[in-house]
Design a protein that fits this description.
Elements: E1 2-14, E2 27-39, H1 50-65, E3 68-69, H2 79-90, E4 99-109, E5 112-116
Parallel strand pairs: 1-3
Antiparallel strand pairs: 1-2, 2-4, 4-5
């Protein structure tokens, strides 16, 4: 089995309404997103074409989250909840007989990230 990984970045604002601390105030991040798809190679020797993976993530995730106020999309936009939302947007699109979505990693800061797997 092989795993194909592609990284993305996006900028967005949010505030954590159910949190008591500085993150309850409106603020922004440059998020780093890593998508992992695992499976078997096709006749061309690829699990999934990086171009196709990029297009799917752009259409299903980045078009919504980049330069957005995430609270308008996810009521309590913690890193965990954002990663789960991303998984739910991508799971069906990144599933075939040969491969499936394996992992979503989302960095909120350069040193803090969450991993979502199902």
């Amino acid at each position: 089995m092989f795993c194909v990984v592609k990284e993305f970045t996006f900028d967005a604002a949010h505030n954590l309404v159910e949190y008591h601390g500085k993150c309850e105030k409106l603020h922004g991040h440059t998020y780093k997103l890593q998508i992992m798809v695992c499976g078997e190679r096709d006749k061309e020797g690829m699990v999934i074409d990086f171009i196709d993976l990029k297009k799917i993530v752009q259409e299903e995730v980045l078009s919504y989250l980049d330069h957005a106020y995430i609270n308008e999309i996810i009521p309590q936009p913690s890193a965990e909840n954002i990663a789960e939302w991303i998984w739910n947007k991508l799971e069906e699109k990144l599933s075939s007989e040969r491969y499936k979505l394996s992992e979503v990693r989302l960095w909120e800061t350069p040193t803090s990230f969450v991993i979502y797997r199902k």
